[in-house]
Every structure is written in C-alpha cells, then in structure tokens.
C-alpha cells in the first residue's frame, strides 16, 4: 500500500533513538523529508547518517532539548525553513524516572510535566500554522500504555501522560477537518531504553541473562514477545498518511494485546 507520503515534510521529536527514530525511519522509507532532534550530538549524528540511507528525502538533524520552549520554536522554524513547510508532526520524549508516590519530589513532578506534556504543547503550538497550510496535516503523539493501565513503579508516567490523551482528544475536535490528531500507546518495545533496563536488571541478578529478561517482559503479552521499534514506527507513519484519513482522536495501543481495556 502506498502511504502517499512521498515529498511531504515531517518533524519527529526525541528521535535520535528508539521509538522516535523508528517513526522517522518509517516516514523516510515512504519518501518524506524528515527532521529529527535529541540532546546528545553524537547520537543525533549517528541517527542522521542512518536515516540518510533510508529514503530519497532530505534529513535535518537539530540538537534540541524539548524542555526548552525557545529551542522547540527554533526546531520547528528550522524544519519549515529546510523543507518549505510542514505536513506531519510526530511527538515523542524521553521517559520520566521510575518512582513511587512517597519518594517523588515536587521538582520531579514539574520536570515530568515539562518533558511529557509541555514539550508536546510547545511543539504543536509552533507547528500548528504550518500544518494548517498543508493539505495533509497530521499530528501523532507517542505516549504509553500507562495512560490506560497503570504500570507499577512508574507514577509519573501513569499520572502525567494522561494529559496528552486529553490534549489529543481535544485538538482532534478543534483542529479537524484540516488537521487530524491521534495517539499511539506503546507496550514494551525493544528500544535502547528497554535494552538498558533488561541489562540493569540482569546485573542486579533479577534475570539470569538478557534472553531471560526478554522472556520475563513477554510473559503477559498474548503475542508472546515484546515489540520491535519498527512496529511502532510504521503505525505512526500510517496515522500520518491519508490511508488513515477517517482516524481522528484515536489512541491506538501497539502492545501485542497486553492491554485488557
Ligand atoms: N520502549 C518502550 O517500551 C516504551 C513503552 C512505553 C512508553 N515509552 C516511552 O516512549 C518514549 C521514547 O522511549 P524510547 O524507548 O524510544 O527511549 P530511547 O530509546 O531512550 O529514546 C529516547 C529519545 O528521546 C531523546 N530525548 C530524551 N529526552 C529528551 C529531551 N529532553 N529533549 C530532546 N530529546 C530527548 C533521546 O535523545 P537524547 O537523550 O540524546 O536527548 C532519544 O533520542 C519515552 O517517553 C518512553 O517512556 C517507551
């Protein structure tokens, strides 16, 4: 199926690794020009080199801390300048620390809010006029299955990410019909973040080895495995495509059937 993204301009945030990079890769493979960002310069350059080989479009990589509203504005402006407009926005971010309620500080609450919610708000605010000018404007927000079912030890993800779903549902009504907005809810996907988690637990003796860690994380997943980043990235590309032209305001799990509700 042709996703009709060739020649379109896309911005994917938090995209030098993991789910953001997988989404940028899927869009690049469909022929879109893709802008990516991250804080670490080496990781970003690596990602740009990988993406350049994925498709015929241009790649822009810009060092950006998504918790800085001025940097976010500059990222959107640089993307529009490089590509002559903006058709698709995919938002991701880093993950908040793993904490319980009693150990979470007020500062951590505000930091998680800036990282997970305000970064999305600032990106959409800056992107909106350009998406409006496109005849194919879309927004896809990568969140987590934690917006449907709390995950033990991930208080900040459980509590704060739900704001993004409220935001997506609201702009899906306010921005339609010119711009569609949807969310994807990853379950457990084997990104560098999850690889590090498995390695840390293996070092602590919780798993015998990496394979045992994979098996433990797969236990409750009906598909009997954790996901590949490609599987999330391709869903982001489909939701950016006119192939999903009547999908608006949806929150789509990519979790192998893990969520029960
Ligand atoms: N993988 C999963 O199974 C899973 C499941 C549910 C939810 N999630 C969520 O999905 C998001 C992405 O996870 P991932 O697994 O793809 O993680 P990852 O592999 O660690 O990638 C995170 C990306 O975000 C960038 N980033 C982090 N903080 C940033 C900031 N302040 N400004 C700009 N870029 C930033 C990182 O680059 P720099 O560090 O260089 O900035 C990197 O490119 C996270 O919020 C995570 O909690 C993941």
What topology does this entry show?
Layout: E1 9-12, H1 18-29, E2 33-38, H2 41-52, E3 59-63, H3 69-83, E4 88-91, H4 106-133, E5 138-142, H5 155-160, H6 162-174, E6 180-186, H7 192-203, H8 210-218, H9 229-240, E7 251-254
Parallel strand pairs: 1-2, 1-4, 2-3, 4-5, 5-6, 6-7
Helix pairs in contact: 1-9, 3-4
The structure holds NADP nicotinamide-adenine-dinucleotide phosphate.
NADP nicotinamide-adenine-dinucleotide phosphate is lined by residues 14-20, 37-40, 43, 64-67, 92-95, 115, 142, 144, 186, 188-189, 191-194.
Compounds present? NADP nicotinamide-adenine-dinucleotide phosphate
CATH architecture of the largest domain: 3-Layer(aba) Sandwich
Q: What is the CATH C-level name of the largest domain?
A: Alpha Beta
Give the percentage of residues in beta strands: 5-15%
Q: What would your notes on this structure say?
A:
- With 261 residues, the chain is of the alpha/beta class.
- It has 2 domains: 9-189 and 227-253, Rossmann fold; 190-226, no CATH class.
- The chain has 9 helices and 7 strands.
- It has helices at residues 18-29, 41-52, 69-83, 106-133, 155-160, 162-174, 192-203, 210-218, 229-240; strands at 9-12, 33-38, 59-63, 88-91, 138-142, 180-186, 251-254.
- The chain has a 7-stranded parallel β-sheet, sandwiched between helices.
- The chain is globular and about 50 Å long.
- It starts with 8 loop residues before the first strand and ends in a 7-residue tail after the last strand.
- The relative contact order is 0.16.
